[in-house]
C-alpha cells in the first residue's frame, strides 16, 4: 500500500486519504471548528478535499472556500454537480456557483453526483466544455454501478472519466464482487465515501466489533484507523473520511502509515466476509 498516488494524473502525488465535507456548513456555530479541522488536514497532507453543491445547500463549499483561502494550490479540489444540473448551460451555472462559494476559479475534479435522467452523452459534453474553459481539470462520476460504468465506457469521451466515487467500508463490501475489479481493469481509481460508515447502527456495529477492536488494541491505534487502513489496502482506492474535529483529522492522517498484516486482514475477512455474488450498489 502506498500512502500517495498519482491518481488523476495530477502534477503532485495525492495522499490516499483525503477529507470529506458532508454535513459541514450546516451550523454557523460549528463553522470555525470545521475550517480549523480542514486546515489541519491540509497541514498534515490530506490535500484532497471532497465537497458538493448539495452539502448544506452550498454551505460546505463555503467552509472549504474559507479553509483553502490563500492556499488553493496546495489542495486537490473535488466538487459534485446534481444530476439535473449536469447538462448544457445549467452545468456552467452550477459550476460557476460552486467556484464562487469555493473562492477559486477552477476545480481539479467535478463529479456527476449520481445518475438520473440526463443522458450520459449530454453530461460528457457539458464536462468537456467546462474543461475547455479551464473551469475544471477533469470530470468523474459517483454512485454508478458496473452496468452504468460499462455504458459510460462505450460512449465517445466516456473513457475520460477520472474516478467513480462510491460507498465502501468494511461493513459494506459489495463493490468487491464486480465494480472494484472492473475499475481496476480499466485503471479507474475509486474514491471510497463513508469509509467510517458515517452515523447509525452499522457504524456502531463496526466501531464496537470485537475483532476490529482487538486489532486496534494490538496495534495501539484507534478503530477508525483500522477501518481506514482496511479501505486503502487496495492500491486503486482512496478514502475520503469526513472529520470536523482536529483529533479525528490527526488520527485519520496517521492512518496513512498503518499497515494491516495478512493475518489481520484474514481475521477481518472472517468477521466481514467479502461478497460471493452480485449485490446492488450500496448508497446513502
Ligand atoms: P464517514 O464515514 O467519513 O464518517 C464521518 C463521521 O466519522 C463523522 O461523524 C466524524 O466525526 C467521524 N469521524 C471522522 N474521523 C474519525 C475518527 N478518526 N474517529 C472516530 N470518528 C471519526 O462518512 P461521510 O458520510 O461523511 O463520508 C465521507 C465523505 O464522503 C463525505 O463527507 C462526503 O464528502 C463524501 N460522500 C459522498 C457521497 C456521494 O454520494 N458521492 C455520499 C456520502 C458521502 P466528526 O465530524 O465529529 O469529526
From TrEMBL:
InterPro entries given in the database record: AKR, NAD(P)_OxRdtase_dom_sf, NADP_OxRdtase_dom
Report the active site residues.
55 (proton donor)
Q: Name one GO molecular function term.
A: oxidoreductase activity
Residue span, NADP-dependent oxidoreductase domain: 17-271
Q: Where does substrate bind?
A: 113
Q: Which Pfam families match?
A: Aldo_ket_red (PF00248)
Question: For site (Lowers pKa of active site Tyr), what residue positions does UniProt give?
Answer: 80
- According to UniProt, the name of this protein is NADP-dependent oxidoreductase domain-containing protein
In which organism is this protein found? Answer: Atlantibacter hermannii NBRC 105704
